[in-house]
């Protein structure tokens, strides 16, 4: 499914572009720079200067767009407003988010196809209409399917999911974006983005024993924190990087989203070539080998990385211990040897109620093979999983291969349940019957995200993340204070045994079981295809353009609430049961800020009605203000909007009347999504000004008439006693983004 001719053309044009960039910069190039310059929207003859890191905006031309079913709905609904016959860039839709995990694969898939029939019909028909490739439900998780079919070294892709950087494991710059960005690219416009910073992770040594690729990114997350990668591309360099399998690399780049990075990438190496060959792309492997110098940083870069990167983190794989992160944040990291004592000290439930492996992050053949090697020895010793044990395969290809090679059967013999090839419990699509809401319990998974309520909708579930190897060991032991490197488990006969060190092949000896039945190619022309959206549908709703902005709208805005601490997109627009409304803006807006912790309230999702003073859900207060003609403002803390790329976290506030969001700092994707929807995102120049904001404040933004790149504005907070506090605020809007604001949304400038 990869256009080898287009890739060859990209490589051939890249060399000249790289030479020009080296001449201008007077130095060698990092891998990210090579890929960015290869896709920069500028004529070869006019490349006379280069963008400055973290400062200048640029226009890039991505090679493709990928969308999952939850975000594709709103992206396509926006694309329909553009009035175009076909997408201008290769694009795909992957049905992976709407399949609920409850029983087992076939039962859950059949239920999803029935419950979501209307949405699937819309996605398939609109894909046929506009020339988009369509992957049917059950085909697999978007990121695994992309890795198997579309990712290639040196490419640039955007995807409407925060874990799109998974494709960085195949040497591709793959960036998670909101649907509006995807619409621009699908409409033939360049992708406008700030030129990223550069972070290097220098890997030395080799992985061994219980340590896996997962432990690399968990270590990185612990070091850099959830916002340490914001505005930067993370490159993995060194001999240690070349020692990791292609799918292991993908695990690492996938979870780069958890440090806020624009994306993460590995240089092309033989491990990638072998993966391409194993997935039926031998011609691409040969092409990449022939152009290997274009697909790795220049030699001088790796020799003296401090001269080329803004920040360098060094990790010795030989001494790296298996890690566990959590609960409630993917950067709360420690070695597995320290987990038990910390759990006891904090009073966390030691008994593990559920252990889950798979997802887009860790469902490769290597992951399944290593985990099954532990499970197999346990089964032979007469052991069963003490915890509920769930397996989420990443794709049909992976599942059918591990079914053929026996790993799936081993998991079932251990007491595991194989779920559908879908996201399931990772994104809140877990219909959990064994634990009542509000019950404190501990779960372990090989997933990527562990915010409160993320997996099962229960904020009292303590979610810990580790490698599939550790999770399988935890499932067998049943307790958090178990360390497989040193501890034993007891068999039914009373024998104390140590679990075996995991072993596994990175690729199947017999090759993958290929299966493309789930793919529906679009017809040559979709002119005759009708996209049907019923007027009375509860799940799909055609969009109406947002009205242009006026400066007066941001005068005298009631403060809806002040977010205290972490406010992720899960807090702003929860998933789980709300996924069914992702194509209906009005209905999904009823979930707005349900999980947000208000600094002025004891319970999440509540605020004070400015008219009555009574406590109400924030979305109800917002709707009342909107309907009475008032725009409103939100104040946030650090890294506001981290997590999923879901643009609903920006579209819903816009639909409900949000004028401005003022924070200490933003997560990258969410800040862009706010701009795209015509909401003004501002940062306190002095983060301490956050503390000046009081309950019942009325907010006015001064200086809007002079809004321009680099300008400052003043937020005036008028308190209930009549006094005022003023805060100087900055923004990151480019010239085009300023136009988006005044137009009311970026889409309005397109149409």
Describe it:
Helices cover 31% and strands 18% of the residues. With 751 residues, it is of the alpha/beta class. The chain folds into three domains: 4-196 and 264-305, Aconitase, domain 3 (2-Layer Sandwich); 323-483, Aconitase, domain 3 (2-Layer Sandwich), CATH 3.30.499.10; 551-750, Aconitase, domain 4 (Alpha-Beta Barrel), CATH 3.20.19.10. A seven-stranded mixed β-barrel has the order 22-25-26-27-30-29-28. A six-stranded mixed beta sheet has the order 6-5-2-3-4-21, sandwiched between helices. α3 (69-80) links the parallel β2 (64-68) and β3 (91-94). α3 (69-80) packs across α5 and α8 (213-224) runs parallel beside α10 (246-254). The two termini are 32 Å apart. The model has no long low-confidence stretch (mean pLDDT 95).
Spell out the blueprint of helices and strands.
Blueprint: H1 4-25, H2 31-38, E1 57-60, E2 64-68, H3 69-80, E3 91-94, H4 105-115, H5 117-130, E4 133-135, H6 142-149, E5 156-159, E6 173-176, H7 179-186, E7 191-194, E8 197-204, H8 213-224, E9 232-237, H9 239-242, H10 246-254, E10 263-265, H11 270-278, H12 282-290, H13 299-303, E11 311-316, E12 323-325, E13 333-335, H14 336-346, E14 352-358, H15 365-380, E15 388-392, H16 396-405, H17 407-413, E16 417-418, E17 441-445, E18 461-465, H18 468-477, E19 489-490, E20 496-497, E21 519-520, E22 557-562, H19 569-572, H20 585-588, E23 606-608, E24 615-617, H21 618-627, E25 632-636, H22 648-655, E26 658-663, H23 668-676, E27 680-684, E28 698-702, E29 712-718, E30 724-730, H24 735-743, H25 746-750
Parallel strand pairs: 2-3, 2-5, 3-4, 5-6, 8-9, 8-11, 9-10, 14-15, 14-17, 15-16, 17-18, 22-25, 25-26, 26-27
Antiparallel strand pairs: 1-7, 4-21, 12-13, 19-20, 22-28, 23-24, 27-30, 28-29, 29-30
Helix pairs in contact: 1-2, 3-5, 3-7, 8-10, 11-12, 15-17, 15-18, 22-23
